[in-house]
Amino acid sequence: xxxxxxxxxxxxxxxxxxxxxxxxxxxxxxxxxxxxxxxxxxxxxxxxxxxxxxxxxxxxxxxxxxxxxxxxxxxxxxxxxxxxxxxxxxxxxxxxxxxxxxxxxxxxxxxxxxxxxxxxxxxxxxxxxxxxxxxxxxxxxxxxxxxxxxxxxxxxxxxxxxxxxxxxxxxxxxxxxxxxxxxxxxxxxxxxxxxxxxxxxxxxxxxxxxxxxxxxxxxxxxxxxxxxxxxxxxxxxxxxxxxxxxxxxxxxxxxxxxxxxxxxxxxxxxxxxxxxxxxxxxxxxxx
Length: 287
Ligand SMILES: [Zn+2]
Known about the structure:
This protein is of the alpha/beta class.
């Protein structure tokens, strides 16, 4: 069964660990993440960007696939199906399609407009028991073609948005999407500490989890981060494993061209990446 991310994140915040959000792109991705969560007895959040939703033939297709898999694979750990960086329209579409969690990314709007639109979605989500993530201060790197500057969020603005009744809050603290550049300055823990103090029990979300050093991840969790988004790392692991298979000529020997064989190394690589992250985030055996 799909669940809202509210309870799992409140437990994570209280227990000083984080739940991973792993973005999905297709059947193999989804299956790899669900099976790993079950094996490790960990709660999990499946992230779907609007681009990935389009790629997978719409939100209803995604809901059907995920629900079908949960049933067929006997997945009993808490699973939230979450829209990642949703527009206002995208969030409404996912709410209607049966997602159990949505992010409305109003960070590119003036704060007043971000607040007005977030408030409307808070009401819609509360009625249906869906968790809602809001974002304050854009997160650097590329989000479906939109390149953010990677500024740090204003703790007072974070407090204003947290008080609207959202479930969790993403705040820029120097993190970026995609690979981190060699000259990256690191996470800004002063800003994270200030935000944490302002928002109290509200679970905080760290986007751009790929390539943040382990000690910084652990410190971020200790300062109130309870959800960490991982996307690029699974893509890199999948691509590298698939490349090795093809470069070794395995697709040319016997039935190695069978897609179920061709995609198997990438599938296993995603599983290994998810396992590594769940262990690092501390969510193992927290289902
Ligand atoms: Zn993000």
